[in-house]
Design goal:
It is a single chain. This protein has 114 residues and is an all-beta fold. Helix content is 0%, strand content 51%. Strands 2, 4, 5, 6, 9, 10 and 11 form a 7-stranded mixed β-sheet that branches. Strands 1-3-8-7 form a 4-stranded antiparallel β-sheet, with no helix packed on it. Strand 4 and strand 5 (48-54) form a beta hairpin.
């Protein structure tokens, strides 16, 4: 059974870069045909797909966030990471990592505030 766990700072200052890591257990992030995603949910709003990385390492980004987002992976650690630059309070959200649309981490709250 695959398990995903998000980790990273819960508080980020405006204009800084938010960095989160998703650690995967029970499955390899290089397994064929799986896509690994970052999704967020701002307070009072719906879920927003931010981007993802495929089993082969190809990356995909939400167009509106593409200029600020970078997703990478460390296959030796079975982890993938999210970096979101130049954050503002509007980036405050619960951030989730997922495998496809069925397997999700528990989410981590990130607040952008000075």
């Amino acid at each position: 059974q695959v398990q995903l766990q998000e980790s990273g700072p819960g508080l980020v200052k405006p204009s800084q870069t938010l960095s989160l890591t998703c650690t995967v257990s029970g499955a390899s992030i290089t397994t064929n045909n799986y896509y690994w995603n970052w999704i967020r949910q701002p307070p009072g709003k719906g879920l927003e797909w931010m981007g993802g990385i495929s089993y082969s390492g190809s990356t995909y980004y939400r167009p509106s966030l593409k200029s600020r987002t970078s997703i990478s992976r460390d296959t030796s650690k079975n982890q993938f990471t999210l970096q979101l630059s130049s954050v503002t309070p509007e980036d405050t959200a619960v951030y989730y990592c997922s495998r496809g649309y069925l397997d999700w981490g528990q989410g981590t709250q990130v607040t952008v505030s000075s």
